[in-house]
Each structure stands twice: as structure tokens, then as C-alpha cells.
Specification:
By secondary structure, the chain is mostly helical. It is built from eleven helices and no strands. α5 (93-125) packs antiparallel against α6 (132-158), α6 runs parallel beside α11 (226-249) and α8 runs antiparallel to α9.
Amino acid sequence: MISIYAIALATFMEAVRNKIVWAFGALAILAILVSRALGWVSSGEDLKVMIDVALGAMLIFGLLIASFISSHLLYQEEEKKSIYLVLSKPVSRLEYVLGKWFGLMGVLLSHIIVMLSLFLPFFLAQGGKYHNSLLVAVFTMMLEFAVVISLSLALSALTSPLFSAVMTFVISLLCHGVESILELQQYVNSVLAKRALSVMYHLLPNFSNFDYKLEAAHNMPIAINGYTFLYACAWLLLFLGSAVVITQNKQL
């Protein structure tokens, strides 16, 4: 546990010093401020638009941070040979991967806390009212980030940093449109294409299970059951397990 904590802390400190995190964070803050302007052009829906845009900004820039920072940090460690120093100590590959995961989760949690700290006072000052569905939507968003970080760690251990970052982000976006794949099959004539779409539908995680932005924007009650949590844990364990296996078999 001490090794995991030390790796997590080092990962977190290294990530927050990265300019990419600050750039994405600044853009997310800008999006929150712009959300008010977008609300003005929507008749009577300004507060709903503010929530929708703010949560959307937290999600998109959170996905960018999860995709690019994890791959960048692993690549840096290999380039600087610091990974050899870590693994030369009594630290297993499992502890190493878990430490990276916890550290990156700390970065994403900090991202969410900062965004909420800026958005909520701004939202309340505009006449909005706090409701629990907003925090529930943020919680399920963190579940999604947990899965995406584990996916990014697996891909980072397998491929180049740029390719893994792009693939993680693209796959994350595809996972948000899994439900649309079935609809797309109706407009495809090729049997091979239909089978490919069917395989994609069954292999990709369905991130709509974590998407409650609409409910939060309209102050609708959100009932979170054990399935949502277990679904996230299943994909989390699959990707983290893959990252550990790949790291164990990788020549470092």
C-alpha cells in the first residue's frame, strides 16, 4: 500500500505540473463562463443550458486529460529511465499500475472539484438553484473517468503515446454513441458492415450508463442502482488487468 501511495502521489504531482492539464483546465473554465452567454440566446432555458454546457465541458476536458496525460507521463518515465528506478525496488507491476491509476484519478477529481467550485457560485448568482441531481451526474462522470484512465493505461503500455492518447479519446467518444450503432445498422445494406457494427456494439463499453447531463439540467431525479457501479467496476478491472498483463510482458 505504501508503494501504491508513493507512486500515486508522484504521478499526481508530475501531472499537475504538466502544461497540458492547465491548458485544458483553462479551456474548461472558459466554457463555463461562455455557458451564460449561450443561455441568453435560449428563451427561458438559460439555467438549463448553463448546467448542460458546464457538465459537457467537465466531461470533454476531463476525457482529454485522462487520454493525453496518462500516455504522456508513461512515455516520459520510459524516456527519462525513471521507470527502471521504480521497478528496481520491491514494487510489483500491479502496484505500479494501481499507483498510476490512483494518481491520475486524483488529477481528474481535482479537475472536477475546481470546475464545480467555479461553476456553482456562478450558477447560483444567476438565479439557479442547487439540486442533488447535479452531484449525482458528476459522480457518474467520475465513474466514466475511472474506466477511461484504465483504458488509457492499457493502451499506453501497448502503443506509442500519441496513438494511445488519440485512440483513448476516440474510443471514449464512440462509447458515448454505442446506442446509435444499432440505429445505424438499419441504414447499412452490407452484411459485413452490419456484422462489424454488431461486434462494435457488444465490445465497446456503453458510456450512456454514466451520462446524466440531461437529467441534471432539467432537475430530474436520478436513481443510481448497483448495476451502474458494477458495470463501471467490470470494465475497470478488465482494462486495469490488461494494463498489468501488458506491463508484465513488456521489455522495460
